């Protein structure tokens, strides 16, 4: 019984450690900014900032910067890219 209990506790401890590690990412915030940035971000060049956990940044109301969502940032930079895509002959026939 003691061995079973020890194994269960060890499993719970490992799970807790892995969960903590997954959410313990450090990010950078500026005094007047509204977004948090990755450590070493180009957005922080020449600015004073604090390094805090991502969880703390979100607790304080900061939102992630575009560098956390590169696909979304690219779409925002080129919103008309899909609209200017070539139309295939199948798509033309559907319209008619």
Describe the structure.
With 96 residues, the chain is α+β, with helices and mostly antiparallel strands. The chain has a domain at 23-64. It contains 4 helices and 4 strands, in the order αβββαβαα. The chain has helices spanning 2-23, 54-59, 70-77, 89-95, and strands spanning 26-29, 35-38, 50-53, 63-64. It has a 4-stranded mixed β-sheet. Strand 1 (26-29) and strand 2 form a beta hairpin. Mean pLDDT is 73; it is low at 18-22.
Distance between the termini: 75 Å
Task: Write down the secondary-structure element order.
Answer: HEEEHEHH
Strand content: 5-15%
Give me the secondary-structure category.
Answer: alpha+beta
Overall helicity = 40-55%
Q: How much is the average pLDDT? A: 73
CA radius of gyration is: 23 Å
- Order of strands in the sheet with the most strands? 3-1-2-4
Count of beta strands: 4
Q: Largest sheet, described in full?
A: 4 strands, mixed
Uncertain segments are 18-22
Short description:
It contains four helices and four strands; from the N terminus they run αβββαβαα.
